[in-house]
Design brief:
Distance between the termini: 57 Å
Shape: elongated
Number of domains: 3
CATH class of the largest domain: Alpha Beta
Radius of gyration: 30 Å
CATH superfamily of the largest domain: Reverse transcriptase/Diguanylate cyclase domain
Largest sheet: 5 strands, parallel
Strand content: 15-25%
Number of helices: 15
CATH architecture of the largest domain: 2-Layer Sandwich
């Protein structure tokens, strides 16, 4: 099934009609007749879209929508209110309750499926990001997105050649948001490359092709900014096309300023939540390959990179060298000064290590006091020179710990190895470099030993 849709209506005939239309298009349909059951089904089945009738006995559609959007487990599900009402106050009330759009009875099938496709596409993106967020939460990473659902202070670009209409929208929005108006399509696309929370495009513009602006924005640098398309209600094909091209919402002309403000708040709130989830995803990915204490790459990252580089070298690619570095007598630092001081030594050592390798090298912490530097394109001799530079820098000045109250002299033992031909493996390279470390320690420590194959 392409998506799961929950239909909520107290009239069975209406439910069966929508079920039939959606099922023919291969959607998986759930249904119920009241708001309380809708809340339960939405939490349990996590539909991709809810088509919610407004006029229901007991809990009406407005209240049901409000409760759906108030719950963390259902607030991300798009809600379309289905109503026989077509009044301005009802639309604004629904938007303030959190509804994503409206369908007016009798339902226009073309508009129905355009909205379903647009909103389920958005939901699938949100689901992927939320799954990553949940993974982070299970790992103990703070990922509370509720605090990020602010809807004010947005950066809004209005693309419109109707000056009076554009200024009317800007005047309404400028109390809450930072608004820029562009009437030239080329200038608008340049402006869209900036950091924006929303783009409002008049697709009924006389002086340019508004649909082309939507298409170019969604395929370019501004593709993450939602687009609110201003349309003539009578121009159904243009309205549908705007949604197909990626517009997140539709605003009919003549523009009602309260409806404009409500739709803008909804889009900016969703954009910021999506940005928050993406930021968490980026942070989680970084944490997966970064050592939390030193900020260097971790063993997992080193293993993957070394495997790829040694594999390429074995097939005739550039040589790869490896340094294994071990801090001498590190246990005595922890025993004498405590583990906090030991951590300070590790952090300072990581700084000295990172500042003495080449820009292309990959300094990593293997664990404890053991570090590795992967050196793409370096020979055994080149790596030996870098290792000696690191050794001298570490030994040249004491490490300050405990707020500068104590100074500790630190030395390191380094083993060096490099690939030589077809038989090289990451394990073999690491073993040779490890043997160099053992020999350096046996020879009195504070030494660099290069191990040829």
């Amino acid at each position: 099934m392409s998506a799961r849709i929950l239909v909520v209506d107290d009239v069975d005939v209406n439910v069966r009609l929508l079920e039939a239309k959606l099922t023919i298009e291969y959607y998986d349909v759930l249904s119920c007749n009241d708001g309380a059951t809708a809340l339960s089904l939405a939490a349990e089945h996590q539909p991709d879209l809810i088509l919610l009738d407004v006029m229901m006995p007991g809990m009406d559609g407005f209240e049901t929508c409000r409760r759906l959007k108030a719950q963390a487990e259902t607030r991300h599900i798009p809600v379309v209110l289905v109503t026989a009402l077509d009044g301005r106050q009802d639309r604004i009330r629904g938007l303030e309750a959190g509804a994503d759009d409206f369908l007016t009875k009798p339902i226009d099938d073309v508009i129905l499926f355009a909205r379903v496709k647009s909103l389920t596409r958005l939901k699938h993106v949100m689901d992927e990001l939320r799954e990553r967020e949940e993974s982070g939460r299970r790992l103990g990473v703070d990922s509370d997105g509720a605090a990020r659902l602010r809807s004010e202070g947005g950066r809004v670009l209005i693309v419109d050649d109707d000056q009076r209409q554009a200024e009317k929208m800007a005047a309404e929005l400028s109390g809450e948001h930072r608004v820029t108006i562009e009437s030239d399509p080329e200038a608008a696309l340049v402006a869209a490359k900036g950091a924006l929370d929303l783009i409002i495009v008049n697709v009924a513009a006389a002086g340019f092709d508004g649909l082309r602006i939507v298409a170019q924005a969604k395929s370019g640098d501004a593709r993450r900014a939602p687009i609110l398309a201003v349309v003539e209600p009578a121009e159904r094909p243009r309205m549908v096309k705007a949604l197909e091209l990626g517009a997140a919402d539709i605003l009919p002309r003549p523009i009602d300023t309260e409806e404009l403000s409500a739709r803008v708040r909804t889009q900016i709130r969703r954009k910021r939540y999506t940005d928050f989830l993406r930021q968490k995803l980026d942070s989680s990915m970084e944490m997966a390959v970064t050592d939390a204490l030193t900020g260097l790459h971790n063993r997992r990252y080193m293993t993957g990179q070394l495997q790829a580089l040694v594999g390429r070298a074995a097939q005739g690619g550039s040589q790869v060298a490896l340094l294994v570095l071990d801090i001498d007598h590190f246990k005595s630092v922890n025993d004498s000064f405590g583990h906090d001081a030991g951590d300070e030594v590790l952090v300072e050592f990581a700084v000295r290590l990172a500042t003495n390798v080449r820009a292309v090298d990959l300094p990593c912490r293997m664990g404890g006091e053991e570090f590795v530097v992967v050196m793409p394109g370096a020979s055994l001799e080149d790596a030996g020179h870098v290792a000696e530079r690191i050794r001298r820098d570490v030994a040249s000045a004491p490490f300050r710990v405990m707020g500068g109250k104590e100074q500790i002299t630190i030395t390191i033992s380094i083993g060096v190895a490099a690939t030589t031909g077809d038989g090289d493996t990451p394990e073999g390279l690491l073993k040779r470099a490890d043997e160099g470390v053992y020999e350096a320690k046996a020879a009195g420590r504070n030494k660099v030993i290069a191990k040829a194959a």
